[in-house]
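Step 1: inspect the first sequence and its tokens.
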Amino acid sequence: MAYRVLIVDDSPAMRAFVRRVMEISGFDLATCLEASNGAQALELLHTEWVDAILSDVNMPEMDGEQFLRRLEADEALRHIPVIIISTDGTRSRVERMLDLGARGYVMKPFRPEALRAELERTLEVSSE
């Protein structure tokens, strides 16, 4: 089964990098959508269906924490698993994001295998 993934990051270069990493990792990617912040992602999610969201934390307009709060408050969107991708790996940050509803956390920089493993774990993909 191929998956639809939304990447939320204010850096176009990082969004392109994450997309490329998913492709080279062998993750079964059908479609990759992009948003530059949480507000843009929420707009997109009201018109597009996705299996998972990969989100940065530090973004303008609506950061990752605000984005998670808004997702959790939206009955139609709260089921979508979110994996945080961030340079901030402090215990307090990781715990806060998981408490807000994130289902996974990947530290930048990361290896393709690490991102694929976290996506598959979060989406409960069985290895064949």
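Step 2: inspect the second sequence and its tokens, then contrast the two.
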Amino acid sequence: MAPSEMNETEVKTRSTLITAIKWWWLFVVLGLAGGVMGYCLGWFSPRVYEAKSVIGVSVDLTETGDLSDTDEDRLMQNIVGNCLSLEVLEETTKTAIEQGLVNQNSDLAADLWAERFQYAVTLRARADSPQKAEKLVDIWSQNAYQYLTDSAAHAVQAAQIQKAVDDLTSCFQQSALVSPVSTACDSLSLDDKLEQIDALSTALAEATTAARGVAPGMSFLSPSPIAKAQQVSSSLGVLTLAGSLLGLLLAYCLVSLGWLPPSSEGDRAA
């Protein structure tokens, strides 16, 4: 940059600074005005309230065996997924519509969150009033608990069917041996064994699917009582700060663009 250009830039910068100091009260006024406008917008913006419920998870290690951290994470993520499953959300939405909490076009899933905390799942529901948030999370937690309990029952059923399949498979293998087999195995023909194995395998697949990733030996505690909903979102402070910053930016633009009378010293420098 040429010396003349540097001098011109320094002069303009100095002139702008002096003008800004001269009009310091304008920065204060516009900053306060912007803050007041932002505060008013925040005051009239919708409030958001959140209510919580917790479903405890009990694990019988004699049934599941020792679980690694990876196994625990996978099982707990399956439980969280069950709470957010399409079936649970549809039933919750249906009940919420019947009770007048939401309308037909509401996307209730956007207001529901589930997260794992150790051996428990925390369900959170948000709404524009504390009463609505509490009712929503109560409906959701009851539906999720019933869904998980049904899944656990199918998991137990799948384990029992698996044991029956293993026993029949052992019988089938013994039938191929020369040595005598047990009386129970001997009472079944080869075709009967194959037919039962096929039927049990089909039932096992159905029960495993219905278990939805819940392992045998897992049970669930009834949802905790719903605590009073708390306000979790307020744009009051954010909008107030944003309004103040916009006011200061406007004042700076007025000064830097030369829309305000510069100081006499600035005129002399120019």
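Step 3: confirm your contrast with the notes below.
The two ends are 19 Å apart (CA to CA). Confidence is low (pLDDT under 50) at residues 264-270.
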